[in-house]
Amino acid sequence: IKSVDNSGQVKYTEIVKVIIxxxxxxxxxSPNPVQGNLMNLQFVNxxxxxxxxxxxxxxxxxxxxDVAQHAGGSSSQSFDLPAATITKGIYQLxxxxxxxxxxxxxxxxx
Length: 110
Description:
4-stranded antiparallel sheet
């Protein structure tokens, strides 16, 4: 998306992959590495329900948790990570689905 502010400065949003139609079920985070504290989760062909989001640091400590309510199918949700507790580094992102399926991936915060 292109935006122009009042001074005429042009900015573009991050490029994201959009999958339309039937794709393989997946959950992914973008961008990775996360710039700032805004994390986007993309749900592709996932069942409806509550998804538990957990961010674990390299020491194994729970640094952030939230719940995403997903309507089913494919969608994207944004999460504003707390700047006071989430600093630059490598984390483990755990997403536990309504059927207790666990998705785990490495997340880098810049």
